[in-house]
Structure of PAS domain S-box-containing protein/diguanylate cyclase (GGDEF)-like protein:
Amino acid sequence: MATEDDSLNALLFEAIVSHSENIIGVKDLSGRYLFANVGYARTFGQPADTFLGRSDRELFPSDIATSLRAADRRARFSQSSIIVEETVPVNGEMRTYLSVKFPIHDTAGKVFATGLIATDVSQWRKSEEQLRQSEELFRQAFENATIGMCLAGLDGVLLRVNPQLCRTLGYERTELEGHPLSEFTHIERGDARPDYVRHARNGDAAWSEQDRRYRHKDGHDVWCKVSSSLVKGSQGEPLYYISHVRDITESRQMEAELKRLASTDPLTGIANRRSFFEHIEQELQRLRRMQTHVSCLMLDIDHFKTINDRFGHPAGDEALRFFTMLCQQRLRITDVFARLGGEEFAILMPGTPLDGAVELAEQIRQLVGATPVTLPGASVPLTVSIGVTALHRDDNSPDAMLRRADAALYQAKTKGRNRVASVREAA
Ligand SMILES: Nc1nc2c(ncn2[C@@H]2O[C@H](COP(=O)(O)OP(=O)(O)OP(=O)(O)O)[C@@H](O)[C@H]2O)c(=O)[nH]1
């Protein structure tokens, strides 16, 4: 006889199963449906009643029905419930369900049916698979990249490094991970932390690029272009940095070598005309800011043409190199020695007043005159004429000073060569 409690339970059961998003069913021992909730109607597009009395064999392909039945059987023999993942076709599309299956007992404690509550997890599985695929894609790109890559925490500590970064710096993965990249960096500007760590601390710029000099494990320097971007979480909160680290050592060396070649005279190895002008420009700037002296010598080997004529051009080259070497013996580290062209040279002397420059010019003149150059078959005496002047703060270009030096040299030449002449002011 039905009690009031039974009717309440029936109402509760009805309310729960009809509002559930899940598929809820009960099958008898032969696998025929005793109960199917509205979830069945929603999923399969047929009234829930149409399932009653039918088995999975009539609803699904036989291999699927067999595996559903096997799970039902396992549930019947289980103590409480089992959870299985089941895939079934729904309107021509395979869908994945997470099913809780459990035995249902009669009042005598005998199992007479199997219950099931199934949740459609197809979308989760799909998202999981997409996530797995994109993680795999990232992993492959990270591991196989021909550029160094790393993930670093907001404090700059390396969380993950790729094999190329290990090769670039010469360390094992375990020697890098857990350490800040700054441990392997030269301190160039007083702060070893990469810019992105400073940016993170200040909460600005999500991207930065900079050239940094690292120490390879074997001790040599490695120049790298480091491009870093901030990875943010779903709420926009900063999580970590991902950096590309490109080894640019070779191109920096090439750049430096090109710069050196562009500013060097190939025959003598000293500064060339272009570089000399740049030095005068710099000194002019300094002179305008500071109380100092800058002097300049312009040197021209006397009758150099006769050396070429007598001994040939290669011997003339040798004489030019020898002359360079002689002058260098008298120079300070701060002096700039340049070959302006042909047999014409110049020396810029920061910190030296005109009188001191004249003195040095005289020393050079005497040294050159006293030291003949050894050429094939002869020891040839050289003499040099030298014009001396000073850089003035109101010189509006290097040319202004060079014109005075040239005028002084002209005087030395016209007064008989092998002498020093100076011009203090503009003519
Ligand atoms: N071997 C060699 N000779 C050069 C080079 N550049 C210029 N010369 C030569 O230097 C000589 C310069 O001659 P001039 O300008 O007449 O001057 P100089 O014979 O030294 O006579 P003064 O300067 O008047 O004392 C020329 O014969 C040029 O061919 C060079 O790179 N190598």
User: Anything to note?
Assistant: The pocket of guanosine-5'-triphosphate is lined by residues 267, 300-305, 308, 313, 316-317, 320, 342-343, 413, 417 (CB under 6 Å). Residues 251 and 257 are 10 Å apart (CA to CA). The longest helix spans residues 122-144. The two ends are 133 Å apart (CA to CA).
